[in-house]
Amino acid sequence: WKSQLELAIAWNRVDLAKTEIFTEESQWESSELHWAMRSALVGNKPQFVRLLLETGVSVRDFLQDEQTLIYENLARTINYSINANTVLYFFLYQSENKAQRDPCRDLFLWAVIQNNKELAEIAWEQCTDCMCAALVASKILKKMAEEGSDADEAKDMQALASHYEKHAIGVFSECHSSDQERAQKLLVRASPFWGRTTCLRLALEADDKSFVAQSGVQVLLTQIWCGELSVDNPVWRVMFCMVFFPLIYTGFLPTNRRLKPLGCWSRLVSLYSSPQVKFYWNIVFYFAFLLLFAVVLTTDFQATPSAGELLLYICLFSLVCEEVRQVRDGTRMYIKDLWNILDVLSILLFVIGFAFRLTSELFYAGKILLCIDFVVFCLRLMAIFTISRTLGPKIIIVKKMVRGLYTNVPYLIIFGNFPTDIDKIQFDINSCSTNGTDPLKPKCPVLNEDQTPAFPEWLTIIMLCVYFLDADVVFFTFQVVQDNTDIIWKFQRYELIKEYHSRPAAPPPFIILSHLYLVLCRRPIVCKEFKNELDQTEEEELLTWEALMKDRYLLSTQQEQSQSMEGRILDTAQK
């Protein structure tokens, strides 16, 4: 029988193996077929792999065989194929014993990295934590497609990544329709098989917008957004209680009905620790910060810093402290966000402008830099619109507009023809009021020694050209965003909720006190709603239930394929 099985594998005759070798009378030990499994894997015979698994070959025993080198080759293959990332790091670089806890996972990764669709599909069906496995595959394939040099292969990888995102969506939809509470636990449970990360974190890293846009995920995000407050509370009630907090003791702002009744102090904490309340307070502060910034630049910018300017520096320092905290929480995810890059740019411009204003020679240049920085801070204000279902997706246009601007700036440099005497235009000092005391004349700008405006007017032309280029890029990205408005908004909403859930409760500049408390007590902000550690019994029960839902999903998928026209034609051809 061994020689017959060798020939069947070599000729890829699964039908002969089923009828002539693996009959009902035959009884096989798992270890007796390890060589056949190895031959099927090396020879890329996925149908034989499926047949051997159905016959009773144990993947765990097979991959723990001393002759199997998949563990040694897996980390090396991934290391050369893609850059190390948080999804793979935690289990690829741990001890070998820990890596062998889930052999099906390792076989699945091996197939995914080889871009072997059929074998990966078979291995995924054997995975214990199937939803996380599908999201990890989506992440890996997208990363490999970005770094690949072959356009056709990259296209296949992107298609396979979308295929596994659909698998994750299908399993979750089946779970959510069966039991919403269990399905939500699956989203935020720390998976021991995937570096103790969660499905939501994997979906964020893999940029799986369709998965995040699922109604079950959005229900969970809405609950996290409201915290311990009821999800049915209108915005005006929440904002009213932010100012007049004693109203929370009158039942004016109901709390979550699923939770047990809260005490007086707990009610107050639940109000101000809610992500939506943190968001509203930060909006109020940011508008106040911009107003103070504008007042200082226009009316109160003197050689000696005034009280308003000192308050401005304190507010900026509180912003710097918050950015440092976010960087410490995750540098790689921090730099991937365009808004964080904009924050860093605005802070750097402010620091340079502040350094210039300390010297008399560069005092006016420092003011110009701070004015440009004010524009950057105003651009950062657009991030608050991501919570809006209507305006949120339009922010994607701005992000793409900024990226597209980089490709147009060289044309501005090459073909831009600025007048050489733009700063030497005849300027009449009598046409304006030096001190601004004449109501019939405008106030004179800051003048040089030769009585001409000190402000570089060429800078105005450059900024105007930048605005025109921005408007031009908008037309190329508007339609793409418009077609996927709902999915984009839901994904942006998740990022916003995640950010404000991890923020300290106090808004800037009082957030400095929260940072000081966190440093002294060495207590990081724990996001239990986004990452939940389960005990072993509950973990096993949840994974068993997930496996059952996966089988239901696969069965329904097979039924849909068989009922489709293509499935009928394929069945007829096989007969």
Structure summary:
Residues 20-74, 94-214 form the TRPM-like domain. The chain crosses the membrane at residues 235-253, 279-298, 338-356, 362-385. Helix content is 67%, strand content 0%.
Number of helices: 29
User: Which class of secondary structure composition applies to the elements?
Assistant: mainly alpha
β-strand number: 0
In whole angstroms, the N-to-C terminal distance is 27 Å
Unreliable sequence segments: 80-87, 90-100, 414-424
Shape: elongated
How can the largest sheet be summarized?
Answer: none
Q: Provide the residue-averaged pLDDT.
A: 77
Share of β-strand residues:
under 5%
Helix content: 55-70%
What order do the SSEs take from the amino end to the carboxyl end, as H and E?
HHHHHHHHHHHHHHHHHHHHHHHHHHHHH
Rg from Cα: 31 Å
Please, could you describe this protein's structure?
- The structure is a single chain.
- With 575 residues, the chain is an all-alpha fold.
- Among the domains are: 69-221 and 534-574, no CATH class; 228-272, no CATH class.
- It has 29 helices and no strands.
- The protein has helices spanning 2-11, 14-21, 34-42, 46-55, 59-63, 70-81, 86-92, 96-99, 103-113, 117-126, 130-147, 151-178, 180-188, 199-205, 209-212, 215-226, 235-243, 264-272, 275-299, 307-329, 331-335, 338-357, 363-380, 394-415, 457-483, 485-501, 511-521, 536-563, 565-574.
- Helix 11 runs antiparallel to helix 12, helix 19 runs antiparallel to helix 20 and helix 19 packs antiparallel against helix 23 (363-380).
- The longest helix is centred in the N-terminal third of the chain and has 28 residues, at 151-178.
- The chain is elongated, with a radius of gyration of 31 Å.
- It starts with a helix and ends with a helix.
- The model is unreliable at 80-87, 90-100 and 414-424 (pLDDT under 50).
